[in-house]
Amino acid sequence: MLTRIKDLATQLAPRLIEIRRHIHSHPELSGQEYQTAAFVAGVLSSSGLHVQEGIGKTGVIGELRNTGKDDRLLAIRTDMDALPIQERTGLEFVSRAEGIMHACGHDVHTTVGLGTAMILSQIAEELGGKVRFLFQPAEEIAQGANWMVKDGAIENVSAVLGIHVFPSIPAGSIGVRYGALTAAADDLEILIIGESGHGARPHEAVDAIWIASQVITALQQAISRTQNPLRPVVLSIGKISGGRAPNVIADKVQLLGTVRSLHPETRAHLPNWIENIVANVCHAYGAHYQVNYRQGVPSVQNDYTLTQLLQLSAEEAWSSDRVQVLPEPSLGAEDFSVYLEHVPGSMFRLGVGYKDRIINHSLHHPEFEVDESAIITGVVTMAYTAYKYFQQP
């Protein structure tokens, strides 16, 4: 079966390159993936899958059904949205949308999903079970997975697999990670409320800007001395707003930031921990405060058995020297984790780096590029893992 899957992938390779370049040239922002969704639906329909559009607003489901005795339903999730970045790659198929770019590889993800669907549709009778392809919108704003789940995208699903490009390893390689793959990502808003006054008489006011700076410093220092260093926390303030004029002491300052963590227990106590620090600083200097902590997506926690299945399938397909067990998680976030709150699953990393380049630009960079040979590596790995899934009891 592996030989057959590889042969089918080789035959499809030119078409898959065309698909990826079409999607790359026509990127769409989160929740606006109308053309991409219509294109995906057309490819799925032409491959004989049962297609549903408008799932999770602009998402698409393609289901491969057969009459096998295996009642399990395997989901394969890929995402479709792009980023508000002006592309600077100079590629022939550069983005035609001003200020929008597939800088996170979702064009590759979508192509791998379509290629996998094309191959599995040709071996459907030998699968034994059902496969549901989830083409998800709005991953970049961490909303799409919730939209898809709300619309029933994973009803009756037994397991889910996902993929994400990884420029840090070369094309032709696969990276797997047991346990935590990505971090939980939460949003933080802190409002410091002081009292306005003349810049020449600071003792008559309560300087919200100065106090906000003390809050930021206290939070960063407290992480290194009150949080377990083996359970990392990253708190970054990305936006500060406040003040009215150079000679007027600010009475209000808004701080906006992100909080990343890997362990659920650590994440659970962070809201109170942050508020206590803010409260102590503000109390010391006579200010009031508001803290709004909004939980975003949880950490991707890969299921051991499914990760092992991915690793063994990839090693069989490509040899063990092309499969890496990643030693560290990423503190980036992925809303694939939302599906894992409902069903077991695993996401693997697809190497897309050029072997002969000194620099492979990172994700979200305006010059980010991928070695397109990686597409076949991803398609074969995903298709063969799906086949092996149904061979196991």
Explain this structure to me?
There is one protein chain. The two termini are 18 Å apart. The chain has helices at residues 2-25, 34-46, 106-122, 124-127, 144-150, 208-226, 264-285, 304-318, 336-340, 374-391; strands at residues 50-55, 59-64, 73-79, 130-136, 159-170, 174-176, 179-180, 184-193, 197-198, 233-242, 248-249, 252-261, 288-297, 301-302, 323-325, 345-353. 37% of the residues lie in helices and 26% in strands. It has 393 residues and is an alpha/beta fold. The longest helix is centred in the first third of the chain and has 24 residues, at 2-25. An 8-stranded mixed sheet has the order 1-2-4-3-5-16-6-15, with helices on both faces. The mean pLDDT is 97. Helix 1 (2-25) packs antiparallel against helix 3 (106-122), helix 3 (106-122) packs across helix 10 and helix 6 runs antiparallel to helix 7. The chain contains 10 helices and 16 strands. The chain has 2 domains: 1-182 and 299-391, Aminopeptidase; 184-297, 2-Layer Sandwich (Alpha-Beta Plaits), CATH 3.30.70.360. Residues 189-283 form the Peptidase M20 dimerisation domain. It holds the Pfam family Peptidase_M20. One of its GO terms (molecular function) is metal ion binding. Its cofactor is Mn(2+). Belongs to the peptidase M20 family.
